[in-house]
């Protein structure tokens, strides 16, 4: 077929450009329906999760707040916040970005888009049922797996369908080289079903006994961050940073080493949550070593992302995508180094069971993952809707509200948590004194939560405007031409697929 | 990561657009400079995607791996499933665990609660007229030969303890308990409630069991008091030594078990 | 409890084999060679090395000198050929 095209088309540089632009626009178009479905649903859950977060946060320093609603007690609101954010927002936005990246990197149209929309529907029905179950009091007492047990098979089924579509698309690939982002994405697509099914079977359906349940629980919860969210965030950064700047990553083979090191070490890191618990000493020591060894893949990622950006740092002024993703990449380095240090027994003795851990979790899931996803959405959505974002000013507002909010959140809770931990370790300090000490910081956290909520509302508003094609029509750099337009330029129907 | 020149050189591609390839096909002579230009260019360029690992980073990774190995060796509790304290043991020194002899006093306390406390009471005071006290009893603090025989075969009929007479029925435990279990119970009652007499070893009980032979009737107090003196293995000196090593292992275990 | 052991050992073996297979496959298909071409495989003649592909809506891009720095050298990297499948890296 390529011979036929080569015979009919004289490949001037302009036509070469047009050919690739057309191919890319066609691939983007094939992902439009499922990916936008995932994005829309995830933005909805982001708002739900934010509301629950504010309720839970306010209750920490104002216990009478909404006290007459049994389904919004702290325990339920906090768990519902965690689950809607985990399975409603992060998992879904991650799936949307993954599907788009997989099709792009394979240079092949996404397979089974309608089936994927069905899978997205199943996923959202399951999350909705789970969230109602949690708020209604059907909660499981297992962190990260609070959904009622019947939700797990539905989520797993939906995920398997999505992973199969991704794999089939990969099988159609035209691109011979497996870009580093693809390694990360396939890692995530394989690891999540494994983690989720094994954890559910061993905790909810065929429960293992005693401390083994706790170790399975933290193996899952930590790996959800490390083997599902982290690879997707990194895949997105590894693609979009070079793509936006227009410059290949600083050290490509380091990035490949980084992937395999992550695959090797991260799986063992979760048990450091059980330091001080009745676990065999070697198991905890092993997970501490694995946690510290994570500095190896983190170092390779840090070198790559920062060295790729460093000479072009001013570009964050001109690209919303780059601005969010660079913030996310810097947070990734910060949260990983913090996490490695925090897994050490001496640090953990102070920081564990305090607000410090909460701050650390949000630095990872929010400052790294969520900000990276915002950046990815700013890049992907206009290419799918063929419509430019409505307002640069609102994008800037979104950035400063979320970046400022999460920094305020992190700093106040880290400070409060560290001193809280030191006071808890001192038997002479009355417990109520410690509670009173943390109050101002908890109020600060609520202010930060409101800032984040404002950012999310602005983003949701922009997103809806974009879906509805509102605002003035623009032809800015993020918008690609139509498939038809490029076909006219090439002047041939028979170009290779 | 070693890279050969072949890796660095772009492969010649059959491409209609490239004039240099056409020249080759039409048989025109190669321009050597043209041919070498890509090679020179490849070498001189900033090699994006090819940056070697910075030396400081290799060193840092090396230190990390070394630290990881050392930390595993130091704080893994010998990779045993029953060691919870990471500082319990270093480099193969055995912990207080299944391999080491259990503390006979602790075992004795447990066995006493199960087998003896119903009559002699947890306080070791017994019950007036029927079950003689063990605390301060001259029988308990006295000869291991007599005490061992009471446990093995039982005791029937009146017995005088601390000036009071008791008439109960002490059952035989020789068929139910092993030598080391009997030794543990006896060591326990000889060192509890203010008693302090040397511990009794399993070897001594084995010796007594041997001497008693196939006797199955319970003893009377008179028969026991008229026993000839016998030389038990180890003697008092051995019992004392056993006692002190017992305390040593107690300490070790309590530090290893927490 | 037997089901539990099946789950644990079964998945560990399954995923261990998958990882080894992926690694062997990657080596056999030369994924770990020619990193330089791999790194530029995300670029094409329409979005070449040296061109920025994102900006705030309704605003002009960065001043040229920001992007200018090493355009010259980077532009020498050959863009892939559209008429050949799997353009960036040809398997031997």
TrEMBL record, chain A:
Residues 44-497 form the Cytochrome oxidase subunit I profile domain. The chain crosses the membrane at residues 33-56, 86-103, 115-138, 150-171, 183-205, 225-241, 253-275, 281-303, 315-341, 361-381, 397-418, 447-468. GO terms for cellular component: membrane. Pfam families: COX1. Gene3D superfamilies: Cytochrome c oxidase-like, subunit I domain. Keywords: Electron transport, Membrane, Respiratory chain, Transmembrane, Transmembrane helix, Transport. PANTHER family: CYTOCHROME C OXIDASE SUBUNIT 1, CYTOCHROME C OXIDASE SUBUNIT 1 HOMOLOG, BACTEROID. This is Cytochrome oxidase subunit I profile domain-containing protein.
Automatic annotation (TrEMBL), chain B:
Residues 103-193 form the Cytochrome c domain. Residues 1-32, 216-258 are annotated as: Disordered. Residues 18-27, 238-258 have a biased composition (Basic and acidic residues). GO terms for molecular function: electron transfer activity; heme binding; iron ion binding. InterPro entries: Cyt_c-like_dom, Cyt_c-like_dom_sf, Cyt_C_IC, Cytochrome_c-type_DH. It comes from the Bacteria. Keywords: Electron transport, Heme, Iron, Membrane, Metal-binding, Transmembrane, Transmembrane helix, Transport. The chain crosses the membrane at residues 56-74. The keyword Heme applies. This is Cytochrome c-552. It comes from Kolteria novifilia. The gene is cycA_1.
TrEMBL record, chain C:
The chain crosses the membrane at residues 6-27. Keywords: Membrane, Transmembrane, Transmembrane helix. Residues 46-92 are annotated as: Disordered. This is Uncharacterized protein. The lineage of its organism: Bacteria, Pseudomonadati, Planctomycetota, Planctomycetia, Kolteriales.
């Amino acid at each position: 077929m390529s011979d036929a095209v080569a015979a009919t088309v004289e490949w001037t540089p302009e036509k070469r450009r047009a050919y690739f632009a057309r191919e890319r626009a066609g691939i983007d178009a094939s992902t439009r329906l499922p990916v936008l479905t995932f994005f829309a649903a995830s933005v909805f859950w982001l708002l739900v999760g934010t509301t629950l977060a504010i309720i839970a946060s306010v209750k920490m320093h104002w216990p009478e707040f909404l006290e007459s609603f049994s389904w919004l007690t702290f325990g339920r609101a906090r768990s519902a916040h965690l689950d809607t954010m985990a399975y409603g927002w992060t998992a879904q936005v991650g799936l949307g970005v993954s599907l788009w990246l997989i099709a792009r990197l394979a240079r092949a149209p996404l397979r089974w888009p309608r089936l994927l929309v069905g899978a997205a529907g199943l996923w959202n029905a399951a999350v909705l049922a789970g969230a109602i179950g949690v708020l209604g009091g059907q909660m499981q007492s297992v962190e990260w797996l609070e959904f009622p047990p019947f939700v797990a098979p539905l989520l797993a089924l939906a995920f398997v369908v999505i992973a199969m579509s991704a794999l089939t698309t990969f099988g159609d690939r035209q691109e011979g080289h497996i870009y580093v982002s693809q390694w990360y994405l396939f890692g995530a697509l394989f690891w999540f079903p494994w983690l989720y099914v094994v954890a559910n079977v061993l905790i909810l359906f065929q429960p293992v006994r005693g401390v083994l349940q706790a170790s399975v629980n933290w193996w899952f919860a930590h790996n959800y961050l490390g083997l599902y969210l982290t690879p997707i965030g990194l895949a997105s950064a590894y693609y979009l940073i070079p793509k936006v700047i227009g410059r290949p990553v600083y050290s490509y083979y380091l990035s490949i080493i980084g992937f395999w090191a992550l695959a090797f070490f991260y799986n063992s890191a979760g048990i450091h949550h059980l330091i001080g618990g009745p676990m065999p000493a070697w198991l905890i020591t092993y997970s501490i070593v694995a946690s510290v060894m994570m500095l190896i893949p983190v170092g390779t990622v840090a070198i790559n992302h920062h060295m790729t950006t460093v000479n072009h740092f001013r570009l964050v002024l001109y690209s919303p995508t780059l601005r969010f993703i660079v913030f996310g990449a810097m947070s990734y380095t910060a949260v990983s180094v913090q996490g490695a240090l925090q897994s050490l027994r001496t640090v953990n003795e102070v920081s564990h069971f305090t607000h410090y851990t909460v701050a650390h979790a949000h630095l990872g899931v929010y400052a790294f993952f969520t900000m990276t996803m915002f950046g990815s959405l700013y890049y992907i959505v206009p290419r799918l809707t063929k419509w430019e974002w409505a307002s640069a000013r609102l994008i800037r507002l979104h950035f400063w509200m979320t970046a400022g909010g999460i920094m305020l959140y992190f700093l106040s809770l880290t400070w409060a948590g560290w001193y809280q931990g030191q006071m808890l370790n001192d038997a002479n300090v009355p417990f109520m004194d410690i509670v009173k000490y943390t109050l101002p910081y908890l109020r600060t956290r609520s202010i930060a939560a409101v800032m984040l909520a404002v950012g999310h509302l602005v983003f949701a508003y922009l997103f809806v405007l974009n879906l509805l094609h509102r605002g003035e029509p623009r032809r800015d750099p993020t918008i690609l031409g139509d498939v038809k337009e490029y076909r006219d330029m090439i002047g041939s129907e028979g170009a290779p697929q | 990561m070693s890279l050969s020149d072949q890796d660095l050189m772009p492969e010649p591609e059959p491409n209609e657009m490239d004039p240099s390839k056409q020249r080759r096909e039409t048989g025109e002579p190669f321009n050597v400079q043209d041919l070498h230009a890509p090679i020179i260019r490849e070498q001189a360029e900033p090699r994006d995607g090819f940056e070697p690992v910075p030396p400081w980073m290799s060193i840092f990774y090396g230190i990390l791996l070394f630290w990881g190995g050392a930390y595993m060796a130091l704080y893994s509790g010998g990779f045993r499933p029953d060691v919870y304290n990471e500082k319990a043991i270093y480099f193969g020194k055995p912990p207080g665990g299944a391999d080491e002899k259990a503390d006979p006093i602790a075992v004795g306390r447990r066995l006493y609660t199960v087998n003896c406390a119903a009559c002699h009471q947890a306080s070791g005071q017994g019950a007036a007229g029927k079950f003689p006290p063990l605390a301060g009893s001259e029988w308990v603090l006295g000869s291991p030969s007599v005490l061992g025989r009471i446990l093995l075969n039982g005791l029937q009929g009146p017995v005088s303890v601390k000036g009071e007479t008791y008439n109960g029925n002490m059952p035989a435990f020789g068929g139910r308990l092993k030598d080391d279990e009997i030794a543990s119970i006896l060591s326990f009652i000889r060192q509890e409630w203010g008693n302090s007499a040397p511990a009794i070893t399993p070897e001594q009980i084995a010796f007594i069991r041997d001497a008693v032979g196939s006797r199955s009737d319970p003893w009377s107090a008179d028969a026991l008091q008229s026993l000839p003196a016998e030389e038990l293995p180890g003697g008092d000196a051995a019992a004392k030594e056993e006692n002190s090593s017992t305390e040593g292992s107690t300490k070790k275990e309590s530090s290893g078990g927490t | 409890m037997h089901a539990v052991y099946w789950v644990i050992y079964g998945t560990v073996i399954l995923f261990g084999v998958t990882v080894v297979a992926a690694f062997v496959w990657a080596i056999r298909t030369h994924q770990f060679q020619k990193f330089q071409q791999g790194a530029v495989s995300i670029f094409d003649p329409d979005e070449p090395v040296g061109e920025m592909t994102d900006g705030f809506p309704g605003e002009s891009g960065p001043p040229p000198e920001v992007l200018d720095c090493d355009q010259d050298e980077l532009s020498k990297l050959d863009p892939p050929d559209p008429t050949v499948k799997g353009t960036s890296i040809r398997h031997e």
